[in-house]
Target: Urocanate hydratase
Amino acid sequence: MSTSRNIKAATGQTLECKGWEQEAVLRMLSNNLDPAVAEKPEELVVYGGIGKAARNWEAFDAIVSVLKRLENDETLLIQSGKPVGVFRTHPAAPRVLLSNSVLVPKWADWPHFHELDKKGLMMYGQMTAGSWIYIGSQGILQGTYETFASLAEKHFDGSLKGTITLTAGLGGMGGAQPLAVTMNGGVVIAVEVDQERIAKRLSSGYCDRQAASLKEALHWAEEAKQEGEALSIACLGHAEDIHKQIIAQGFPIDIVTDQTSAHDPLNGYIPTDLSISDADELRKQNPELYVEKASYSMAEHVRTMLKFQKHGSIVFDYGNNLRQVAYDAGVNEAFDYPGFVPAYIRPLFCEGKGPFRWAALSGDPEDIYRTDQLVRDLFPDQDPLLRWIDKAQKKIKFQGLPSRICWLGYGERVKMGLGINELVRKGELKAPVVIGRDHLDCGSVASPNRETEAMKDGSDAVGDWAVLNALINTAAGGSWVSFHHGGGVGMGYSLHAGMVAVADGTDLAEERLKRVLTTDPGMGIMRHADAGYEKAEQEARRHNLDIPMLGRDKHDG
Amino acid sequence: MSTSRNIKAATGQTLECKGWEQEAVLRMLSNNLDPAVAEKPEELVVYGGIGKAARNWEAFDAIVSVLKRLENDETLLIQSGKPVGVFRTHPAAPRVLLSNSVLVPKWADWPHFHELDKKGLMMYGQMTAGSWIYIGSQGILQGTYETFASLAEKHFDGSLKGTITLTAGLGGMGGAQPLAVTMNGGVVIAVEVDQERIAKRLSSGYCDRQAASLKEALHWAEEAKQEGEALSIACLGHAEDIHKQIIAQGFPIDIVTDQTSAHDPLNGYIPTDLSISDADELRKQNPELYVEKASYSMAEHVRTMLKFQKHGSIVFDYGNNLRQVAYDAGVNEAFDYPGFVPAYIRPLFCEGKGPFRWAALSGDPEDIYRTDQLVRDLFPDQDPLLRWIDKAQKKIKFQGLPSRICWLGYGERVKMGLGINELVRKGELKAPVVIGRDHLDCGSVASPNRETEAMKDGSDAVGDWAVLNALINTAAGGSWVSFHHGGGVGMGYSLHAGMVAVADGTDLAEERLKRVLTTDPGMGIMRHADAGYEKAEQEARRHNLDIPMLGRDKHDG
Ligand SMILES: NC(=O)c1ccc[n+]([C@@H]2O[C@H](COP(=O)([O-])OP(=O)(O)OC[C@H]3O[C@@H](n4cnc5c(N)ncnc54)[C@H](O)[C@@H]3O)[C@@H](O)[C@H]2O)c1
Ligand SMILES: NC(=O)c1ccc[n+]([C@@H]2O[C@H](COP(=O)([O-])OP(=O)(O)OC[C@H]3O[C@@H](n4cnc5c(N)ncnc54)[C@H](O)[C@@H]3O)[C@@H](O)[C@H]2O)c1
Model:
């Protein structure tokens, strides 16, 4: 098994495959493993603990070789990162269908997963790792930006100026936090146990500086806050430990959250009393003890966050399942602070809004700047969106293939997708563009501790919606469609679907984009209208969505 | 809510819908609720405990009205028996996509399901109840016939002549057991607690007679065995109680199995010390106590079956999760007797064989007889298959729309499907035919206590395969495609997918049938080849299936 690969997506107009769709898959798969994009490319790990792009290097090679020979009316099946079959379908069908990490519920936990993983029968797909539409930290940056913007709107008159946020975890997703906070004008202290991760965020410009000590971090933070400056500060250490020290010193924090990899108590979270290398050792020697220690640290971590809440900080969970682990370890009040979705994101979901993203297969940043302009042209009245596009263009260094993300709603996505397809058709872009999104979207996920936490009708755990999302997007003609279990909250806690479509400027692409960029966010409105959210019901009516029983039942049994 | 409906599928050539596909859906949904087909149509229950066709009557009415207006390029989404949306897709896409009873794994158990069910947010889809391709007892009869035939082959030189089988449960599925055993030449005693169910099986001809007492049953059985006659005997009582009496008397039994509704300890299994009406009462008054009593009875039931095994009987589980309930109630050896799939069915799965079925939308039995002839024409050398067709034609009374089932493998299904489409095209059949199958099939289900019990590579719990089956059949063009959780083994224990395609004699139907009747059984061969079954690997090579890594890895990690 090679460990010294250096994978990069091909760019430009020359095809290695028999069509642009297959080529797009190949480039995006490669892009997911680009060292500039992936967290641990040598282990095929893209982000989020052990979220992988392929089961192993043999499987990766086999996928690549199938993609190169795949016909325009064939469909490749991927089972947890391994290519298991190719069937003849038709040109408007997806070129690839993926199912990653799905386990029969009774066996859907970490021990069973690890057993199967060890046997080479599974891999962890996270959300966009195994579905080949991860685009580096920018992907989460917009979501994180939206979250903090929404928080600022709700609690601080629209800006984080003069506030201090405390968080931890500067990994693939968490690394977006410092920039998201400073883009909203605030100060942030981000605790991270791994010096390499800190270095990565500093060099990518996502984090401003690293403090040599907690004392220095607090000093800088205080100063910036006083002067109303935006500043992000990394601080090396274990979250629980640093948080406790801050509490002990009575230093005032406005906002507390966390993005350590708590969803995976064996391969993710580092227990407070272990260095990274000791953690590596113990993980191999005694996994049970490791999980016990990690759970204990997480319980203490949550207890400290609850203390911050009691002292008046705004505390929210950032989707890593930290509360659940703490709860299982005996912290009964773990769920006393809310998840970020019910707190800040659900109103957007009711409009079919979610993390729309696209990447330029040409490899040319100019193609993305041209699409930035398209956003400005199509949505001239949407100030926050335009502000984001401007900031993103200035602040974001592309990782791997140039790409852009912005949250768009029902109607907007199809407009943008067709607009991009037109630009490709007219030759204003140098090559086709892939259009996709995170699995964390309005109508694609069932995750009672995150995206579907505290649904109005109590339907948090209903997984049918995620299944229907994958099925309808397959029918509507996504280029590749995926269904995953686990994701950001870990084994047992979520089901979710992904979709990517290729805009290659053809009529067929136009048809398919028109359909799939309607079905996909449409599911979001339907799901929330069905749950009784008035906003979603209004949106459904406004857009003339066909919801047969809308308004006819009120879920009272 | 109406409880006095009398639903029957329309027949003949006149359409109530805008195309034959939609019409087929409407007729099959109605057929599922035909009193001649469904177990409790007034509660929308089709079979298998609480397996329903629609969430409630309002939802049913809404589905019907959508189907009547659904265009030929639209797709209706069903979420646990409720119509939640309609989207524009395209003519080769499915007309309906269904997801039933899917829960996020951590919440995928009976208490959560019942809570959601009570709130009106879910329904139990079983396998073919919520996916509208149940065809009455014949559906399971062929599977049961195959199982007993395979058992006879393995243990008794191909016939059950001179053997006595003891089983219980004469419900929707279990009611096929008496006829399946007598078709194989054997004697069977079937214990059933509900006199109405017994009456139903007697009147349908599935069971020969009812004994007035256990004594009489044993007497008749002994007599028939001696004379080498086939005979099925119903015996009123609780399985555990009757079984214990038989053991106590030292009466020799050759084969023991069970099809009581053990998968559902609240709405299914009747505890030994309760009459049916007392059970109904207790279920409402004190569901916890009910489940406790049912679990206790099931534990004793399994202990008795284990005793039979020790005394030399061939004992196997018949897919109702009885062993699991007993195991959870403390019977550590519950899994000492095997499930029917590893014991008798898996070799068939390796050839892509499974419960292929079709129904005549004309309503005319002659259409089915014409397709029986087609089977004879297409597969002239397959003696067991032809024997089945002959017996079925003679013995089986149609319930609802005339239909036929026979187990066909990869290659055979597409041959048969295209043959049927040709007959429709040429006007040799009076109307189109729907072609589907049970979810219990070679490549569509993950169910570690049943279809994927004891897989060679240990991949029993991997659910990706069921997801991929639903996705590829959606891409390939099934007319309706479904994905369910639960089914025959209950909440938490299985994930499975269904597919139905309409043969209406058009070119488009031909194309779609060609694709989908290839992908569907093809998945079965792939799944078993991937698990390392040589038979499946051979079949894959023989049929030139495109399996990228076939033979390249041996799952040693
Ligand atoms: N909010 C969202 O939208 C969202 C989306 C996806 C995933 N997530 C979840 O957020 C979490 C972070 O994701 P990621 O991709 O950044 O994971 P990651 O594994 O790439 O990064 C986690 C980081 O946490 C650090 N860490 C671990 N233990 C620590 C400790 N005790 N103290 C300080 N730092 C510690 C690790 O060194 C690592 O850098 C995951 O649980 C992920 O599932 C959130
Ligand atoms: N083998 C298979 O292929 C297969 C397929 C699907 C389902 N199943 C499972 O088989 C079981 C039977 O299915 P069904 O559709 O016939 O269910 P059903 O609910 O229609 O029938 C179950 C029958 O068992 C009877 N019963 C309950 N408790 C009893 C007791 N203590 N003693 C005697 N009889 C008792 C009931 O009165 C009822 O008639 C279910 O658990 C189902 O999930 C098996």
